[in-house]
Every structure is written in C-alpha cells, then in structure tokens.
Amino acid sequence: MKKQLIIFSLLSFFGKIGMTQTTIWQNDIENATEWTLNVSTGQNDVDANLWVISDAEGGVAAGGCSTAGNGNKTLHIGCQGNLCFGTGATYNAGDGGLGFVYATTNKRAFLTSNISTLNYQSLNIEFDYIGIGQSGDDYGTIIYSVDGGVNWLNLQTITPGTTCSNGQGLWTNVSIPLPVGCENISTLKIGFDWRNSNDGTGTDPSLAINNLKITSNIAPVPQASFSVNNNQICQNNCFSLSNTSSDASNYFWDFGNGNTSNLENPEPLCFNLPGQYVVSLIACNNNSCDTTTQNLTVLQSPISEVEFLNGQITALQSNAIYQWLLCPSLTIIPGATSIAYTPQINGEYAVIITLGNGCADTSDCIIINELGLDEQNGFLNLFPNPGIGKFSINLSYSEIESIDIYDLNGRKQEIECIEDDINLITNEKGLYFVYITLINGSKVVKTYIKN
Questions:
Q1: Cα–Cα distance between 47 and 91 in angstroms, integer?
Q2: SS3 10
Q3: pTM as predicted
Q4: What is the per-residue pLDDT across 40-67, written as a single tens digit (0 to 9) for each?
Q5: Fold (topology level) of 11-216
Q6: What is the DSSP letter of 202?
Q7: Pairing mode, if any, of strands 232-234 and 289-299?
Q8: What angle (nearest 5°) sits at the alpha carbon of residue 238, between those of residues 235 and 244?
Q9: Helix, strand or coil for residue 81?
Q10: Distances in whole angstroms, Cα of residue 37 to Cα of each of 77, 92, 378
Q11: How many Cα atoms within 13 Å fall on the side-chain side of residue 129?
Q12: Which in 167, 230, 334, 450 has the greatest CB count within 10 A?
C-alpha cells in the first residue's frame, strides 16, 4: 500500500531555524496510564477504529521505516471488527454502505495531566509521525486545550504522508508553532482526533505518533523570589535566606545595611542594630533580569548587663520581665522576678531579661563572694556536685557540729549520714542549700544541685 509524507504548514517554524531550542516538556508515549484514549467526539459505529498505545507500531528515529515489536511504544490508530486485517497503524475504512462493516469513527486521545508553560514564550509542539488515511475523510488532527481539557481547539489537520520503498511508513519529525494563548499557562493539554467515514476508501498506515515535545525558541524570563525563615527577629540574631528564583543563573543581593552578595544562597544575615531593612534580590539569565524585595524587621534586644551594689544584684535594663538564675547550671530561682535580687549566699548568678516586644537575653554570670561568710567557706566543698543526692564534704566530721539542708522554699529536708557520706532523702530534683555548723561556731552555706 502506498504511503505519503504528511505535509504541514511550517513556514513559521522554518523562520526560527538556528535559534536555540529549549525543551520544556516531553512525553515518549511509553506509559499508557498518562493518556486518556478513545473519547467519543461524534458518531462511532460498532467497528469504529481505536486509539492504541503499544509497540505493535514500533517507533524508530525520524528517517527510519516503521517496524513492529521493537519495544518502542507509539500512540496509533488500530482497527477492530469485520474485515480488519493486521496490527499496528492499520485501520478499517468501512464498506461504503454495503451493510457488512460499520466503521464510522470520531475518537480522541489526549494527555490526562496538564502541561505547564509558565514563564515560557514562542512555543512549538514537536513529534515524530507516520500516517496517510484518506484526505478529507480518514485523517488525524492535532488539538490543544488551554483550560485543562474543558474546551478543545484544532491546531492542524494531518494530511497524507509517504512510505519507504518497502511499503512501510516513513517516520518524520515535525515542529509546529503553538498559539500565543498556550504561553505562560499551567493548564495546557495536547491531544489528537481521528475520524473516518465508512466509505470503504483509504490507505494504511492510519496514524502513529511518537516522541512528543514542547520547545521554546526564547529563553525563559527569570522569576526572582526568596524565602526568609522569619520576617522579624531580635537584635543580634540572624535571618536565613533561601533563594527560590527560577530560570536564573546570576544573582545580586542587597541586604539594606550596606552589604551585598553575588552568591545564589548567601550566608545567614545578621543585624547589630534594630530597625527596618529592605532586602532585594536581582535574578538574571542571558535574556533578562527580575527583582523582588522583602521588608525585614529587627527588634530592640534588652541590655543584659548587671551590677552588684549594697548586697544586691541589679539589672541595668528597666521596664522588663526578669528571672534570676543560679550559675553555672542556670537553675531558676523561684520567686526571684524583680529587677534586683539579694543573694543569700556567695555564688554565681545571672538574670533572663525579656522586653515587651518579646526579645530576651541572659546576662553573664556574676560572681558574688562578698557576703561575709566564714573564711573556711572558700575551701569547704561538696562533691560530687551536682549529684544524685549523695555527697561528701572535704572536711573531717570531727570539725562539723551539724548539717541541715533546705529547699528553695525553706523546707528542711531529711538527711542520712553514713560514714563520710550525706544522703539527701528526697525524690525532688533541684537546688538545695546546705547549712554546715562547725565545732568552732562558724557557719558555712553551700548550694547543692540534685539531678
């Protein structure tokens, strides 16, 4: 059977030869689940032709002759019913009304999922094909939808093609411009319609499609964008910036504080001074540039310094919320929530200061050793400290008259002395005060942390 080359109007395409082609989508028609087949678009008789995806009509590179069973699947029109012979891209042209075959066909095949062309212009649809049918009666049409398949439009009718010397179809590659309405959308769909009358006239092969692509002749316009882990932070903290731009290869950051960067993703952005900052990103490719900005807020952090005067430790930041701590464990001292704290024993102390804007900071630990306790306090220690409730004192019991232990609420704790160990009999973890009275009348207070 004679097969002829399908003729397409490609003048617009030829005018763009030599320009760089960017493939933005492709489908090799190897997965039938990606396609919706045999949707009726008109009258379909009992012997109507069928859209099929298989390698019964195997795809080969453009310029090659068609074959079967090579593992390369194609989308093609096959036949069914009476007087249907062969497989692959062969079809039933009917019997011309004699009443033996009823092959009138109007069926559609299309991609089930939408195609995104966002940010792309000057589009072409490209594919390999064989086909002939009968001009004006038995033929295929390339169709498209810009609204996700709600409405379909004809792009171009496929007209008679040609054959190889062995009578098989000649695979040919074409590229056809898509309308402007297909640009920069996320709801494009591509499909093919097949129709044939029942006039009994027609020539195989019917139609086979392979290696679908959508390409662009114009580089995409870059879209500048970035995300920030938080648009508002406290002074002396840092923002994390993540570049989410698309179709860009070069970047310029302006952080609004006199600093800039050309990195795709800059280092964390830190500000020492409170205020409003405008961060901008310019994203570019060889075609153009795009700019985006975000406003970042840096809140005032509290002054975290303290002073010790007249037996009190005082925070230098006024009009704030305070919580005093015992160092080095930073254990909270219950009830110590004023701007000043009067320590009862020598030790190390700090304070958490929180402003009304939510920003908080912790002071450095201040060492207090001027509370007038007995000089032996300097060399008398508990060990291990912190511990699990059992500790020793680096002083002979012969020099100790009594030991009393109190919790932070002033409640006296039960203890047990076994040889050189003191056992704090409680399950409560936390800070305790150990009052030691020596036989010479001196009193020493030590803190103990039970884990």
A1: 10
A2: coil
A3: 0.52
A4: 999 999 999 999 999 999 999 999 998 9
A5: Jelly Rolls (2.60.120)
A6: -
A7: parallel
A8: 140
A9: coil
A10: 11, 18, 90
A11: 30
A12: 450
**Alpha carbon separation from 191 to 195, 241, 393 (Å, rounded):** 14, 42, 88
Q: In whole angstroms, give the CA distance from residue 116 to residue 113.
A: 10
Q: State the Cα torsion 132-133-137-139 to the nearest 10°.
A: -60
Q: What is the CA radius of gyration of the chain?
A: 42
Q: Considering only CA atoms, which of 364, 250, 361 is closest in space to residue 307?
A: 364
**Residue 325 or residue 400, greater confidence:** 325
Query: Do 36 and 110 touch, CB atoms closer than 8 A?
Result: yes
Distance CA 252, CA 257 (A): 14
Beta bridge partners of 195: 106, 139
Q: Superfamily assignment of 226-299 in CATH?
A: Immunoglobulins (2.60.40.10)
Q: Which of 34, 165, 44, 175 is nearest to 109 (CA)?
A: 34
Distance (Å, whole) CA 451 – CA 446: 16
Strands 360-362 and 366-368: unpaired
CB atoms within 10 A of CB 314: 18
Q: Which residue has the tokens 């617009």?
A: 12
In the 8-state DSSP scheme, what is residue 423?
E
- What is the token pair recorded at 391? 């500790």
CATH topology for the 375-450 domain: Immunoglobulin-like (2.60.40)
Percent of the chain with pLDDT over 70: 92
Tell me which of 1-5, 29-33, 332-336, 430-434 is least confident: 1-5
Q: What is the pLDDT of residues 87-118, one digit of tens each?
A: 899 998 888 888 888 999 999 999 999 999 99
Phi and psi, residue 53, nearest 5°: -115, 110
Amino acid letter, 72: N
Query: How many angstroms separate the CA atoms of 437 and 446, rounded?
Result: 11
Q: For residue 37, how far is the Cα from the chain centroid? A: 34
Q: Give me the residue spans of the domains in the chain.
A: 11-216, 226-299, 306-368, 375-450
CATH fold match for the domains 226-299 and 375-450: yes
Q: Helices (H) and strands (E) in the chain — how many of each?
A: 1, 35
